[in-house]
Write a structure and sequence with these properties.
It is a single chain. The protein is an alpha/beta fold. The chain is about 50% helix and about 10% strand. It has a seven-stranded mixed β-sheet with strand order 7-6-8-9-11-10-15, sandwiched between helices. The chain has a five-stranded parallel β-sheet with strand order 1-2-3-5-4, with helices on both faces. It has a three-stranded mixed β-sheet with strand order 12-14-13, with helices on one face. β13, α20 and β14 (about 525-530) form a beta-alpha-beta unit. α4 crosses α11 and α26 crosses α27. The longest helix has about 30 residues, at about 660-690. Mean pLDDT is about 90; it is low at about 190-210 and about 220-235.
Length: about 750
Amino acid sequence: MLEKINSPEDLKKLNIEEKEQLAKEIREYILNVVSENGGHLASNLGVVELTIALHSVFNVPTDKIVWDVGHQTYVHKILTGRREQLKTIRKLDGLAGFPKTSESEYDSFNTGHSSTSISAALGMARARDLEGKNNSVIAVIGDGALTGGMALEALNDAGYSNTKMTVILNDNEMSISKNVGGLNMFLSKLRTKKLYAKSSLSAKKVILKIPVVGKPFVKIVQRVKRSIKQLIIPKMFFEDIGFTYLGPVDGHNIEQLQNIMRLSKQVEAPVLIHVLTKKGKGYKIAEENPDKFHATSPFDIETGKPKKEKKPDYSKVFGEKIVEMAKKDSRIVAITASMKDGTGLTKFQKEFPNRFFDIGIAEQHALGMAAGMAKEGMIPFVPIYSSFYQRAYDQVIHDIAMQNLPVIMCVDRAGIIGADGETHQGTLDMAFFRLVPNLTIMAPKDFKELEKMMEFAIKLNKPVVIRYPRGGEDENVKFEKHTNIELGKAEILKEGQDVSIIAIGKRVADAMKIAEQFEEEGIKAEVINARFLKPLDKEKIKTGIRGENIIPQIAIVDALYTLTVPVKISMETGFDVLAHAIESYVSVKSNIFSEMLSEKAIKIVGKYLSIIKENPDNIYARKQLSYASMIMGINLANVGTCLPHRMQYPIGGITDTSHAAGLAALYPSWVYHEYSVNDEKINNIFEYMGLKSVRSAGEAKEQIKDYLQSIDLNYNLAQMKINHSDVEMLCDKVTGNIKNDKLADIQNIVNTIFCESI
């Protein structure tokens, strides 16, 4: 039967018996595919009849079906011409595991996260009405997703507006973990129709004891109660907010499903069809373990066991560590948004049931509640998948970060999640968390570092983000070094002077492998484990960016490109050219040819830099400065710079200030000392710049300060948050040949210039 179905039109030709046979074949087909490739099994086995009924009654793609989450659309894809493609699911360039509009016209809306379908469907219905069309719009949503705030907001709006649409509530009592919460309890009452059972039990016992009339009276009351419940219970929620409620209906009876869907099409108002299904239907092992077969790796159909031995992963390590920590600290609590098993909290729930909170699919609530608990002295750990943390960004900012509350946000599945497609990729959290004030963001290189970071997070007593990937460690890389965690401090895992590789989290292992490859080619690579995304270790990371391999091969000098550059940048780059010219002029390596080029460059900068300050669009002035920059590039290749440049490099390494600003802070003091051994050349420089000659080192210092002020580069090291306690470290990091200067006792002078420049 399955081979005959290539589109919904083929399905519509079948009778009920044929559709029931088709349902069996689809289940077998999905089971075989998922057992080989992995994928979402239990949810898809549960909606086979529901999907068949939908495509039998509605005319897709004219009618629009929006699937909430979308992991239950394998049947939909089979019925819409993608049967063979399903074999490629979870493979490179294979079929998407979720609805994808670019993949098929039958996929009306891209989904991947829960609780979005009713909003999207309502939007489509309103667009339909505005365009004067009459197609049906259907949202299919699970009972777990219905607990999400967005779904309830959409229900409220749809009911109030009386917009014609259909919501199919797929009620299987499961999300990923078992559903929790008040709404689930309400749905349970609708399922069982035993709303008044407990409250009436004692009364029934009393009435039965009444002679003669007792039993007949109870029977009459029971008949009345049944009638009342049929009328009232559905209205308790859905009808009160404006929906016509139909159901509950057996979600595995195709005929019943078709009849109730046809009925819904006749209602000129929002309709909710309550469908009861069983996750994992038709595969006993999945029926008994629906949470384990929600998303599964390849497995043996006979036993249900994975084909590959499951290895330790970050979620499991997290789960074990939080239990260990919770035994020592009663303040530790764990909060999950219906992802107990996926985030490794199963053991924690068993050990500390009173400190474990599953709040359902409600990430916003999870973080808001965590903030409240932290405010009252608890230490909440909140593990949520990276792509789901997006849903609670406001709570991260407003409820946690702004109040600087010690909530530990554990970002599971961070990074590339290839199998589930773009909706589940954890690629944005690094960017959006870094924007938030007061957050400390860490990522471990291996399991042991994750444990260390969890311990460190508690000690900080402020909001912390720890991000870690899906899966386990790289088996090919073993880290022997595990230094203590210090706030904002990276660790150097491998020494090397040719190139620096800076990595964080899972990519540190890749960096180590690349460094080994470099070593085979004779390149010594330094490997830095950043550890912290925020705050960054500026000292280790910025000073690590150096070496011959990052020197450009070609430089393009074109004045036209500089017209869009802010005036401030033009002043800074112009002064840098001037510094090159001055230092190559006074260098012990200078010669008649280099001095000629230096003189030319100094005269150009001295004349035209101030012109650009007053008139930034003066292209002739910019051409002159570009020319000066070019000839100084030639000079530097032969003569090099002097002490100021060598002293600026460590300043640039530990601060966010520009190269020119660092030079400007050092230059007055350096000119003062340089004058003592090069007074004639210093005065020549002043003459070339159009400045007056001086008679002392003090005058030379003041004149260069005045000049720097005239071009808005009046800086000192204190403005860059460098103080006297930093001087020793700065002196140690002065690099390169500092003997280009004529200055004697150079080491002491370096120290002096740093101190005088603060």
